[in-house]
């Protein structure tokens, strides 16, 4: 796994936001769904390019 210091700034900000500012399970679940959907879409795009 990539060291935290080597991650893009936007990812670090997102992780800090999740760890420090998310106060409800509902909000965390919404973020999880959005992230999983984005990752799945990108995986599909990369597979189709190969």
| Structure annotation, total helices | 2
Largest sheet: none
Q: Please state the CA-atom Rg, rounded to the nearest Å.
A: 13 Å
**Strand residue percentage:** under 5%
Spatial gap, N to C terminus: 23 Å
Helix-strand makeup class: mainly alpha
Molecular shape? flat
> Roughly what is the average pLDDT, rounded to an integer?
94
Spell out the helices and strands N to C: HH
Which parts are unreliable, with pLDDT below 50 for 5 consecutive residues or more?
Answer: none
Q: How many beta-strand elements?
A: 0
Helix content: over 70%
Description:
- The chain is mainly alpha-helical and 50 residues long.
- Helices cover 76% and strands 0% of the residues.
- It contains two helices and no strands.
- It has helices spanning 9-21, 25-49.
- The two termini are 23 Å apart.
- The relative contact order is 0.08.
Characteristics of this structure?
50 residues, 2 helices, 76% helix, flat
What's the SSE blueprint?
Elements lengths: L8 H13 L3 H25 L1
